[in-house]
Specification:
single chain; alpha/beta; Rossmann fold; 2 domains; binds magnesium ion; 17 strands; 16 helices; about 400 residues; binds adenosine-5'-diphosphate; elongated
């Protein structure tokens, strides 16, 4: 995958001093009592903002916040995030309440070289989500080039994520660049053998992911609630486990497709079961998948299966992971997820495994296991990460591809 980055600015545009950059970032940060409660997303885009500002560009930050549905809404103004951005950058920034027209032009005119402006919530205007070409052109009127540093919004074809790339010279910011390189190393152009772990609650939410992966990877490890549906499809009685019986045919079709593609599907042969989903409940036990009682539910994969999966990872060069192997929120059903995550972390430290993970609960599980920093890359992008795992082309990324 080739795309333009900030490294191409010089040869394309010459010195960026005094040039106006529109920089799409993700500022959908959690707020508490009017201030930023978690600044992870702001810290992620800080390198791009400072690199451009320090090169003398006038930096205009563009982002959405919440779902105001094309109308101004004082509860979703980005002016609330201004202080949080200033805290992270260690610089004062200017809030600009309009994206187009005389107010925007006048505010941008005041900015000096290296100054930073934060523009109002892009979704206050219907042209954003409609990806209206006139709207994008009107925003672009005040700028010289466009930088997208928001992979998490790249699965949307909106004016600020895709439209602007059509009317201005367009570049991936540093966070976007790192994410695209990591994802490319995991699925686009990976070193084989590749293993994928797909876990989580339901097959129905990840059908497209499974369908795509069986054609891409050599080992597909299925855990979590969705393993139950696959086990049921193979004729296993999973008791009162979470199981989508209406999807057993689909599960069989995926297993057939995997067979033809030379992809080995790994399902657990031992599991941890309990009569209820509670911490260390009475009746907790480990058994073979064929011994699950009618009143029991599978809440984690068992120790033998976990060990076998560790052996699989040891033979692989690349790992992509989405979804926990068990109901990891409650002990001891985090055991397999934590153990396999630690195996993956150790293999990455040995230099034998490139590992990329993503998904809201997956990130939480890796943090819980204390190994998030020992993966090659952990994506916090949610929907965009899943669409990428589905093999879909993301419009915001396609627009940057040379
Ligand atoms: P992500 O957010 O990383 O994409 P998911 O949302 O798909 O992951 O899955 C996470 C959820 O799956 C967790 O709430 C976890 O409790 C649930 N889960 C995992 N294994 C099981 C299981 N055996 N039975 C029921 N729920 C499970
Ligand atoms: Mg989730």
């Amino acid at each position: 995958m080739t795309f333009r980055t900030l490294d191409d600015l010089g040869s394309d545009l010459g010195d960026v001093t005094g040039k106006v950059a529109l920089v799409r970032v993700d500022l959908n940060v959690p707020m508490r009592e009017g201030s930023v409660a978690d600044d992870t997303r702001i810290r992620a885009v800080m390198p791009t903002i400072l690199e451009l500002a320090d090169a003398g560009a006038k930096v205009l930050l563009l982002a959405h916040y919440g779902r105001p549905k094309g109308q101004k809404n004082s509860t979703m103004t980005l002016s609330w995030v201004q202080g949080g951005v200033e805290d992270v950058l260690g610089r004062e920034i200017m809030f600009i309440p309009e994206l187009t027209g005389p107010v925007a032009a006048q505010a941008i005119g005041i900015l000096g070289n290296g100054d930073i402006g934060l523009m109002e919530n892009t979704r206050f205007w219907p042209g954003e989500e409609a990806n209206d070409a006139d709207f994008a052109a009107a925003i672009a009127e005040n700028a010289d080039f466009y930088v997208n540093d928001a992979f998490s919004a790249a699965h949307r074809a909106h004016a600020s994520t895709e439209g602007l790339a059509k009317v201005l010279p367009a570049y991936a910011g540093r966070a976007m660049e790192a994410e695209l390189k990591a994802l490319d190393a995991a699925l686009g152009n990976p070193e084989a053998p590749v293993a994928a772990v797909v876990g989580g609650a339901k097959v129905s939410t990840k059908l497209d992911v499974l369908e795509n992966l069986v054609g891409q990877v050599q080992h597909l490890i299925i855990g979590g609630g969705m393993a139950n549906t696959f086990l049921a499809a193979r004729g296993v009685d999973v008791g009162k486990s979470l199981c989508e019986n209406d999807l057993t045919e689909t599960a069989n079709a995926i297993m057939d497709k995997a067979d033809h593609a030379g992809c080995t599907i790994h399902l657990p042969y031992d599991v941890v079961v309990a009569p209820e989903f509670a911490a260390n409940p009475a009746g907790l036990r480990t058994c073979n998948v064929h011994e699950v009682g009618a009143n029991e539910m599978i809440l984690d994969i068992g120790p033998q299966a976990t060990e076998a999966l560790a052996d699989v990872l040891k033979t692989c060069r690349t790992l992509v992971w989405n979804g926990p192997l068990g109901a990891f929120e409650i002990e001891p059903f985090d055991t397999a997820t934590v153990a396999l995550a630690r195996t993956a972390a150790a293999l990455k430290q040995d230099g034998s495994l490139t590992s990329v993970a993503g998904g809201g609960d997956t990130v939480a599980a890796l943090n819980h296991a204390g190994v998030a920093d020992d993966f090659s890359y952990v994506s916090t992008a949610g929907g965009a990460f899943l669409e990428w795992m589905e093999g879909k082309e993301l419009p915001g990324v396609a627009a940057l591809t040379a």
